Amino acid sequence: MSTVIPVILSGGSGTRLWPLSRKHYPKQFHRLSGSGQTLLQDTALRVKHLAAPILVCNEDHRFMLADQLQQVGISPAAILLEPEAKNTAPAIALAALKALEIDSDAVIAVFPADHVIANQAVFERALATAVSAAQSDNALLTFGIVPTHAETGYGYIECESGSSKNDSHEVKPVKQFVEKPDLATAESYLASGNYYWNSGMFVFKAATFIEELSAHNEAIARHCKAAYETAKEDLDFVRIDKAAFAACPSDSIDYAVMEKSNKVNVVGLDAGWSDIGGWRAIWDILDKNEQGTAAVGDVLNIDSKNTLVHSNSKDKLVCTIGLEDIVIVDTPNALLVSHKDRVQDVKEAVSQIAEDDRQEHLYHREVHRPWGSYDSIDFGNRYQVKRITVKPGASLSLQKHHHRAEHWIVVTGTAEVQVGEKVSILSENQSVYIPLGEIHRLTNPGKVPLELIEVQSGSYLGEDDIVRLQDNFGRS
Hints:
6-stranded antiparallel sheet, 11 helices, alpha/beta, single chain
């Protein structure tokens, strides 16, 4: 019997969910579904009844991804690091090559890390149907979402025959893939009953996919094989060869394979699916009060209707009065206020922020690192104050700075501090001074998180003023 291996793609940036989702902390790592887990964790748990998953992500997110899987008890078969984003076809090809190492007859079930599926039982039945077809017929299966309304934001899949509303979970031949339509066309698709939303989820034998990719886009198959064959293991990760992968064309699986192959079938899925493509989708899936308003965080709504208020601030009350059809998203260093009908235009705001050479599209005020996190709580001319949290047993890199000195004050926990050749232990309320240019390192030797305040002073305080001499996370 073929091993069924989940493949989770975690390469998206989720700009339509700014300011919560940002390049270095995208939407799949946030708790958005109401489950209490992040979208990535929800996805991994959804397929935990299958074999250990293969994940594909970019280098910047690797430690965050590994930490979140560990938090929910998921041990991956592999975490593949893409040197650069090349769209879904190369990412799936790399995962298929890894799956073939595990089982030459493996079936892979491919899922983006940032989707929501409300009905697990219905999902599992549809998945079993797709796996059976992949095993028996060597078919390429995609999941078509039974449409609930005339949506212009999704691509569509047209079936040969049958009503997509009444026979979900059946395997049907695909007549064509259709680009995102205008409203009138979407309404005609809905009325016909022969169209599904294109979900971006797939099931097929790994070998079959590689064969079809080689037949229809030989360059992607060839370059992915070369990049995978020269990959190197790095801690818990598989680092795909950068030079070989750079030559690989960038293309989606739909364009590279699914629209060209004669082996493609669709399985209907009606399980409360959402790709969480924007803030309106978040409003759709969250619980709402009698006035249709959804709230996350410390929020007080008075007579506000059909509104979403999402507060990510730890120390701020957000109060609304008499609003209607508004989306408010509050974070410590950026605030979004939009009419609900315009939230898709948030991508324009992100583009403008980037053009203005700002940082709010890249980072939150709190920045996650493999050893913990830091929160920039204050800054001014020649100084910056951070709250630093170090995980038990973790160490920052052995490093120095050319342009700044630092003071560390321990708030809770125990710190092992190296300054120059001297190593000392600091407890609560004790402090240490690190002169400009001095080699230093911070370690948490305890069993509880270490929290400290760091006060930086100097002529330049950017994060690129770090010379790493040794690092446990391979960053030196």
